[in-house]
Amino acid sequence: MDTDLTALALVCSLKASPAESSSELIARQVLDELAGHGVARETVRVVDHDVRPGVEDDMGGGDEWPAILEKVRAADVLVLATPTWLGNPSSIAQRVLERLDAQLSATDDEGRPAMFGKVAVVAVVGNEDGAHKIVADLFQGLNDIGFTIPAQGCTYWNGEAMNPVDYLDLDETPSAVASTNSTAAANAAHLARLLRGAQYPAS
């Protein structure tokens, strides 16, 4: 099996390390599934870094986004994981999209948008409704930026509304979530290999 693919999970929890995070848990589960397909993996909890607001590659003043962006550029698969807050993705997830927006004007050596050929998967957790809307919003943003979305390229867990139980509190991963994690990872790895072998046409 080809093992030179890499995946990066950007965890958009509002909790800084070392606090436990349901978003990080589901991201790591997807990464573990990707590892079974020969994909190397890395996790970045974005809130641990000083990522400034803006839509440029480097906002200056100690902005730590450029180092994260280099990891995104080096990865074949991006896993974007977010909690649900008030029915929406976290403010950290929104900031990641805003910072990635600068890639719309970046191109490779043949004139393609810089993120063409990269695959994106979304993972959402929360004990309130909103996962479908969050996935739709993130998919649209990621696709606009140039990422390719695989079939069934999202996974999520919604707990009972107004219940304090979080995903990381569960004794075991629900079978439906585990199955979805597996499918999303398998399809992402498959698509990433196809794109590695046959990139989109140059503009």
From TrEMBL:
Stretches assigned to the NADPH-dependent FMN reductase-like domain: 8-151
InterPro entries per the UniProt record, alphabetical: Flavoprotein-like_sf, FMN_Rdtase-like_dom
Source organism, top-level taxon: Bacteria
Cross-referenced Pfam families: FMN_red
Protein name in the entry: Flavodoxin family protein
Organism: Dietzia aurantiaca
